[in-house]
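Question (not urgent): is this output format expected?
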Amino acid sequence: MPLPSPTSCWPPRRPSNTARSGGTIYPIVSNIPRIYGSEPGPTAGKIGTYVMWTAFATTAVTSSLFLTALAPNAAALSIAKKIVNVDIGWSQWFAGFAPLGIPLLLLVPLLSYVICRPQVKQSPEIVTWSSSELAAMGPPTRNEWIMAALVLLAMFLWITGSNPTISLPVLGSNFINPTMVVFVVISLMLVTGVIEFDDIVAEKARGKYSSILPRCSHCQSGLNEIGFIKWVAEGYAKPLATLSPTLG
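Got this back:
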């Protein structure tokens, strides 16, 4: 029977589909085909194609289902706030996409099973392998327990802090900016020693992305204020108005 998608467990706390699928999910699922001798090439159809396709295809769904599952989601909301003064919280985002997103999470493995039907139908060896790997890792360390608690704290603040119906008198407000939650959690990680400051400095690529994205947002806002966006839109709209909707 189809395997459930492992990516559904990670998105709320991993704001990058690349980091989530390539950095967390791939190292796990890439070991499953090897148990059955399914490698790229003639043996890929045993189970490898199905497992890898399911793992990465669901990333597109989970990135849309959770506000904090993809960095551009927050950027898009920031632009919407500046242009049309629309403010959407974590819980509103999830509730809006859940009617479509949750069925998609269930359909992707089923569709993958039809399109990339694996030769291996039963997989009891995976349970044995995962149990042995967990035993080899040993019990959770102090930092891992702290990290788990901080993850739950972040999710709690994202969900309740963006829900106007939930009162948070201790925090003095019913709304907490998701970015502020990230800074709070990172600060706690530094204070508790879960990570070092050098670990943050080492993330140069992500830092560049984080610095470029706000600049693009400000540039877009400036172009909208001077009327450039409207001018371009109207210029393209005139020749397109005479075309048939079915032409595309």
